[in-house]
Amino acid sequence: MMKLSTKGRYGTRVLLDLGLHWGEGPILLKDIARRQEISLPYLEHLIAPLIAGGMVKSIRGPRGGVSLLKRPEEIRLSEVIQLLEGPIAPVECVHNPEAYPRSPLCVTHDIWDEVRRAIDGVLESTTLQDLVDRQKQKWNLEHLPRHEKQGATWEDA
Amino acid sequence: MMKLSTKGRYGTRVLLDLGLHWGEGPILLKDIARRQEISLPYLEHLIAPLIAGGMVKSIRGPRGGVSLLKRPEEIRLSEVIQLLEGPIAPVECVHNPEAYPRSPLCVTHDIWDEVRRAIDGVLESTTLQDLVDRQKQKWNLEHLPRHEKQGATWEDA
DNA sequence: TCTATTGTTGACCAATTTGGTCGCCAACAG
DNA sequence: CTGTTGGCGACCAAATTGGTCAACAATAGA
Ligand code: FES
Ligand code: FES
What is the pTM for the complete model shown? Predict the structure, then answer.
């Protein structure tokens, strides 16, 4: 039920990667693809909505690449998921109130909206900087230099 | 993102229907199908996991039908969704901890688990009886006799 | 200006999931 | 035995997912 697709999962990892390299100028898609183990052609599609959403900037040509347009602490996970997976809602009608005139009569509607608010609460209160901080902390606990662990941000076993 | 499928949505309506007819003996699938506007063949598939999960009892033959095995106040929405849609988790690894040895190193894992707990919190604290009560209250506000409105529990416009 | 580099786009594809229908079988009341 | 009712598996179409590929656009630097 209600699984996140690879868009959301990979995309979050891509942004975490960009957050970890914040301030280093344009990052090559090729490098992100290698570190996050995402195929380059697929990554190009993943990054598109993030660029369209004004979250990421891209530069073509030599010395090009992509970088965050906003500071990591200004990027909330709710925006990220919104861009990558669309509206955060367990059912259509919750996100699209006016299109469903029956909502006021529908009991389950109220519950699904509560679920939506619960999800949104978590994602809204988490920023990309939070993820970056947690990642660095985990690396420190491992007593390993950061650059040796940069590939270890996967969610797939 | 993370939409509920018709299994979860229709199935919840089916249980709400059974909750509203609690104590009336076996309810015909045919009647549920008509009231909830679900095709009978599809309904038979929807009800299967609920029977397998011990939530609903079925009786075949004349004067048969289905009915709740537990009282509506003992049926939590979390169980319902669990039976109909599988584990409540935005990513596999959250539900399947031991199969994903990388979890402790993975930052996003923590976030997805927070999301899972948020969802579960809502569904765990809502029982079928809550839905029944809300439905009756909505009907009362409409000042209409109950039996005229029994079809109006849809979530689809 | 030429070229190598890097991102952009859209067409295309296979696999999976979703949302069903249909036909036959099993159980049971009368 | 017969009619009624649910159980179950095969089957199906459509949508979604998860990609690949080739052609193109932009740009930096020689
Ligand atoms: S291991 Fe589960 S999200 Fe990373
Ligand atoms: S109208 Fe949205 S769930 Fe019923």
Answer: 0.91
